[in-house]
Design a protein that fits this description.
Length: about 200
């Protein structure tokens, strides 16, 4: 089944102190956080990628074919951003990701592998503390459109009408759903000494 991906990259990044989407983990070279998320989405089978945020100039080859859109007004929050991107999605499945996932390739793989349960509208990441991460999820597109909640300001309110299956953090992949909100988060991910191949993934 065809898969689209929506990547949310238009936030203010106040706690980071700089634009997160353009941040490079090694500080000098390699892929930006946005590029890592795009590559991960493609590796999961996405053939349509919509980014809510500003197009980098110059755009790298990794971003070729990506559609960039902006919610109105800009930086008005993840719910308007999600709905703006959703209007462009043509695939029956849509993967929703923040641009700052620490391990985007593994996150995409786990969500795609968990999808397909009959009677559910999608699957959602659940972190080690038992909290749903509604910005890291995979939905049936029409179900997500059908349950739009006018006036919702939080994504959990926006998707409250959906039947979602939890995807807990696998024991073999601790921190798979982590994102990076602060410089301290970035340093922690940079020094990750886990025994998976996560550090080698773009």
């Amino acid at each position: 089944m065809a898969l689209a991906t929506v990547i949310l990259a238009g936030g203010a990044s106040r706690r980071m102190g700089r634009d997160k989407a353009s941040l490079v983990l090694d500080g000098t070279q390699g892929a930006t956080l946005l590029e890592r998320a795009v590559v991960a989405a493609r590796s999961a089978g996405a053939d349509q990628i919509v980014v809510v945020g500003d197009r980098p100039e110059p755009a790298s080859d990794a971003l070729r074919g990506v559609l960039f859109v902006r919610e109105n007004p800009p930086r008005s929050g993840p719910v308007p951003a999600l709905d703006t991107a959703l209007a462009e999605v043509s695939a029956p499945l849509v993967l929703v990701l923040p641009c700052d996932l620490a391990h985007p390739r593994e996150a995409c793989r786990e969500l795609v592998n968990a999808m397909g349960l009959r009677g559910a509208d999608g699957v959602v990441a659940v972190d080690a503390g038992g909290h749903r991460q509604h910005l890291t999820a995979l939905f049936y597109t029409e179900a997500l459109r059908r349950t739009a909640a006018p006036g919702a300001t939080r994504v959990r309110e926006r998707v409250a009408g959906l039947v979602l299956v939890d995807v807990p953090e696998p024991h073999s992949l601790p921190g798979i759903w982590d994102d990076m909100d602060t410089p301290e988060d970035v340093e922690r991910i940079r020094t990750d000494s886990g025994d998976t191949d996560r550090r080698n993934h773009p």
